[in-house]
Amino acid sequence: MTPVVAQLHRLTNADTVEELWDLHTRQMATYGFDRLMYGFTRYRSSTGLGDPQDWVLLSTQSPEYMRVFFDEGLYAHAPMLRWALANDGACSWRWMMDMNRVDNLTPSEKRVMEFNKSMDVTAGYTISFRSISERAKGAIALTAKAGVTQETVDQTWAQHGEDIIVMNNVMHLKLLTLPYSGERNLTPRQREVLQWVGDGKTTQDIAVLLSRTPATIEKHLRLAREALGVETTAQAVLKAAFYNQMFALHQEDR
Questions:
Q1: pTM above 0.85, yes or no
Q2: What's the N-to-C CA distance of the chain in angstroms?
């Protein structure tokens, strides 16, 4: 079994997002990418990427970096994010350098590049994953170790780029099958009542099945809607299904 096949085997057999992410970040570090940032949304629109609380966001960047890049909204002006939203595949960060040379950056984009430079985020690759839905988009930024030049990264990519792309694609596709809550956490009871709603049961039906009152079932549904940030129970069922929470076996269920 080749090292790449062995890694793909490990990725496809991961049981949790945490295990998958740990396997992937360790492997990417062997190619010199020690800081990764992955994002995925199903709520992209013509005006934005949806509520950040609904994103799948994984990162090994420092808390200081993430606080400025995301909490202060720099991500919205990042040149490589703009590229990822308009393209599929892999792109060298040399693209940003080329843009900079022709003075084609906006003031906001220049601020992003200046911040990245201050944090030694200067060389790497971005992979934008293909999606069959216009509302869904995922991408990952692979940042090279501090001090490594883009020329060195491009040389590494010339030798191992195809393997790196395959491993990132498999990681992305596997992640979409695993339960992910992020900041949208459901309790076991909330998941249970949503499961019954998904099966077509009414509030009265669920009350009988769970030996609870209809008022109690309505309370669980209301709390589930609040936890998921939606207005209707149908939206709650859909969002829980999107993030594979509907029939997930969490630790307390095992």
A1: no
A2: 33
pLDDT for residue 231: 87
For residue 55, give every residue at least 6 positions away whose Cβ sits within 8 Å of its Cβ, in sequence order, or none: 39, 40, 41, 49, 182
Q: Residues near 121 by Cβ (< 8 Å), separated by ≥ 6?
A: 35, 61, 65, 143
Amino acid at 158: A
User: How far is 22 from 9, CA to CA, in rounded Å?
Assistant: 14
| Domains of the chain (ranges, CATH numbers) | 3-175 (3.30.450.80), 188-253 (1.10.10.10)
What's the token pair of residue 68? 């400025």
Over 90: is that where the pLDDT of 227 sits?
no
Contact assessment for residue 14 and residue 178, using Cβ atoms and an 8 Å cutoff = yes
CB contact at 8 A, 245 and 253: no
**CB-based contact 170:112 (threshold 8 Å):** no
